[in-house]
Amino acid sequence: MSDVVLPRPVGFVFGGGGSLGAMQVGMLRALDEHGIRADLVAGTSVGSLNGAVLAHEPDDAVRRLPEIWSHMTRHEAFPGGVFGQVRTLRHAKTHLFPNTGLATIIREHLGESTTFDDLKLPFGVVTTDVDTAEPRLIRSGELLPTLLASAAIPGIYPPVEVDGRLLYDGGLVANVPMRQALSMGARSLVVLDCAFPGQIPSPPHTFAEVLMYTAMISMRNQAVLEAPIAAAAVPVVYLPGPVPVRLSPLDFSHTAQLRTNAYEAARRYLDELVVEGPGLYGGPGVKILSGTENGT
Predict the structure, then answer these.
(1) Beta partners for residue 142, in sequence order
(2) What confidence category does residue 75 fall into, taking pLDDT thresholds of 50, 70 and 90?
(3) CB 175 within 8 A of CB 167
(4) Distance (Å) of CA 191 to CA 8, 49, 86, 162, 222
(5) Are 211 and 96 in contact (CB under 8 A)?
(6) Which residues does the annotation mark as catalytic?
(7) Euclidean distance between CA atoms 227 and 230, whole angstroms
């Protein structure tokens, strides 16, 4: 096992990706076993939910997250069948699912009125400002509405108003929020991305899956452009994903497999990792790169 030394503060960056966010649970376990721990956390969409659990109880997150994901179901996150979706769309005009199921998940595991001040690690949640179409990093206030906003994929969930601003899913503009983690003071980054260029979702079969497929394809290449820019200033450890499994981001029936495969891939990678200054170590859609080398 290699002795990975990173400049502090170490920022953990959690990207979005629907049910593929289960991969981050396995990655986090591998990081914990190698003694690599976060000093601050930034997250987008499902990554903001995983990141919030880590920031809330960093010493217990490796145990808690598998329990949370083992009980996660599509019906819980996206309640209602086809007819329910039609009714919701007819009534609301803009989305297929209410965010009530997601709100219940957040309340159950993070509490009803938890604020950013209650967290043990500095935490930033990335959303998209509807008025400006720009990323909005939120670091204060109530956690529940902010997490709902960060996961509000257009067409899937409704936008959420926070502090008078209407917000959508942060993945539209910053699916892997490396810049935001740097702005929070990180001197090195550990990236837990679950929407790699290699992770193309399965062909969609329903209207909801069409929307998720479109979102994933538009989001997945942002990190390819941003990772080398961040790596010019600080070490960026970009954990490799497992062998791609073509699943719908709405499919929660394979979360145990995703966790296990991501853990094994990250563990093998970290066993051999040596960090020597700023550079991109790994990268979106590639296996192992070191130093300032990158495949983009």
Answers:
(1) 115
(2) low
(3) no
(4) 15, 15, 37, 27, 13
(5) yes
(6) 45, 169
(7) 5
| Ramachandran class of 185: left when φ > 0, alpha when ψ lies in -120 to 50, beta otherwise | left
Structure tokens at 136: 């909005």
Tell me the residue type at 197. Answer: P
Largest Cα span, the chain: 56
How many CB atoms within 10 Å of residue 178? 26
Write down the pTM of the prediction: 0.86
Q: Parallel, antiparallel, or unpaired: how do β-strands 160-162 and 165-169 relate?
A: antiparallel
Q: What is the pLDDT of residues 186-237, one digit of tens each?
A: 999 999 998 765 556 667 677 666 766 666 666 667 788 889 999 999 999 9
